[in-house]
Write the structure tokens for this entry.
Amino acid sequence: QVQLVESGGGLALAGGSLRLSCAASGIIFSINTMAWYRQAPGKQRELVARISGRGSTNYADSVKGRFAISRDNAKNTVYLQMNALKPEDTAVYYCNPFGSTFWGQGTQVTVSS
């Protein structure tokens, strides 16, 4: 059974930072590309960043230079370091084995100006 547990969300001021974590189980974590998505109220879920099993990364243009995705294969955990936060980053953030239909419960990030 695949389980994805996101944590680390909360309230931040614009310009601040948060670090999200996602602990995965039930998959062969080290070979999976892992992704972070977000969904703001009234908007479609969008891909924020992804990281391959070997550590290659891709980012949405809206977060390039501000967010950094990383992974610890020994801990089956993927991270999203979010810096220089903006109010438009407010959303529920989800991790996902890229291309799969597995989703966690998400973690809320709220950025106030």
